[in-house]
Write a structure and sequence with these properties.
- This protein has helices spanning 2-22, 42-58, 75-84, 94-97, 116-123, 126-133, 177-185, 198-203, 215-218, 245-250, 253-287, 298-305, 307-315, 320-335, and strands at residues 29-34, 62-67, 89-93, 141-147, 152-156, 170-173, 189-192, 209-212, 228-235, 239-244, 292-295.
- The chain is an alpha/beta fold.
- It has 2 domains: 22-149 and 237-279, Bacterial extracellular solute-binding protein, family 7 (D-Maltodextrin-Binding Protein, domain 2, 3-Layer(aba) Sandwich); 152-236 and 288-335, Bacterial extracellular solute-binding protein, family 7 (D-Maltodextrin-Binding Protein, domain 2, 3-Layer(aba) Sandwich).
- The strands form 3 sheets. Strands 2-1-3-10-4 form a 5-stranded mixed sheet, with helices on both faces. A 4-stranded mixed sheet has the order 8-5-9-11, with helices on one face.
- α7 (177-185) links the parallel β6 and β7 (189-192).
- It is globular.
- It starts with a helix and ends with a helix.
- The structure holds alpha-D-glucopyranuronic acid.
Length: 336
């Protein structure tokens, strides 16, 4: 742990030195964005589009640098760096944000959305989402946009056909108290850790499995060490582009508009690439990595964790409005 912090600190010192030198005689402000995915992941491609748009419009003033692969630290660490303003933006899943801004706990609620279509339409409703994005000033950051991170499902060394197969299994969860609770309700032993640690933990048998979208199998290579992927569809957890509040408030109105346009473009790019890559990932995992995809009785999984809805609502008033709003949309979709 210590050496990781030391490495991050050394990295930041180096950055300061480097950017200090490059900045001589010019006054471009370097904007740093951290994320935990690889350079071929849809989010990285979305961020490249963000960079391109901002630099095209405001290139005399800003230069954007993107740091992938958790090189500035795990999600939790990178969120802290964004909070304090050591860096300007981070892409983080809402599960990792919930301990910083509790409204984001809503997305950790299992089976919140009845379908991916409902989820995507809610997330793409910018007017509604703005209420949430702008509700976290106290945490020192604000969301600019969201990225699709699909539906989360279990994958493990041994096949999971029914909730009973999870009993006593050590399964990795994100550093999210709500996800720990969910895992316990499923009957498994939750093992919270950062994303970058999961591959080795499965490989070495520290955990039996994890849960994520299909790109974790291919882009993060988890399919090399876990050969069974079960479509129980327990969560749809989005990733957020989070910006330091002071930085965002320091922008002129015109600049802010350009950053928001850039954010929209990055989301469009990410969603297009997401749809392509998720299809590819299933194919690669099944045909090249030998991963078996298992269709399960989703209702059997749902039944185990539905009592969590009430429990979570009772404990966190900040998620109630959004919860009720989504329930209405779920119900309407069921009637149509
Ligand atoms: C997905 C998601 C990340 C998240 C990761 C995880 O890759 O896009 O934001 O951190 O899952 O499970 O930790």
């Amino acid at each position: 742990k210590f050496s990781k912090y030391a490495a991050v600190f050394a990295g930041l010192v180096l950055l300061t030195v480097l950017t200090g030198c490059a900045g001589q005689g010019e006054s471009r402000r370097i904007i740093r964005i951290a994320h935990g995915q690889s350079e071929t992941h849809p989010e990285h491609l979305g961020l490249l589009a963000f960079k391109e748009y901002v630099e095209e419009k405001l290139g005399d003033k800003y230069e954007i640098q993107i740091f992938p692969n958790e090189i500035l630290g795990s999600a939790q660490k990178a969120i802290e760096l964004t909070q304090t303003g050591a860096i300007d933006f981070v892409v983080a899943g809402t599960a990792n944000l919930e301990t910083f801004a509790d409204v984001y706990e809503i997305f950790s609620m299992p089976y919140l959305f009845d379908s991916p279509e409902i989820y995507e339409s809610v997330m793409n409703d910018k007017d509604y989402m703005k209420n949430i994005y702008e509700s976290t000033d106290e945490a020192g950051f604000e969301a600019l946009t969201w990225y699709n991170a699909g539906t989360r499902n279990f994958y493990a060394k041994k096949p999971i056909y029914a909730p009973e197969d999870l009993k006593g299994q050590k399964i990795r969860v994100q550093q999210s108290p709500a996800s720990v609770k969910m895992m316990q309700a499923f009957g498994a032993a939750a093992s919270p850790m950062s994303f970058g640690e999961v591959y080795t933990a499965i490989q070495q048998g520290v955990i039996e499995g994890a849960e994520n979208n299909e790109l974790a199998l291919t882009n993060n290579k988890h399919g090399e060490v876990a050969k069974y992927y079960s479509y129980d569809q327990h969560q749809m957890v989005p990733d957020m582009l989070i910006g330091n509040l002071k930085f965002l408030e320091g922008l002129t109105e015109e600049e802010r508009k350009i950053f928001e346009e850039a954010a929209d473009i990055s989301t469009q790019t990410e969603q297009e690439k997401w749809a392509e890559q998720i299809e590819e990932a299933k194919n690669i995992a099944e045909n090249q990595m030998g991963v078996e995809f298992i269709e399960v009785d989703v209702d059997a999984f749902k039944e185990k964790v539905l009592p969590l809805h009430e429990e979570m609502l009772e404990k966190n008033e900040d998620i109630r409005d959004f919860y009720e709003y989504i329930q209405e949309i779920n119900e309407k979709a069921a009637e149509d």
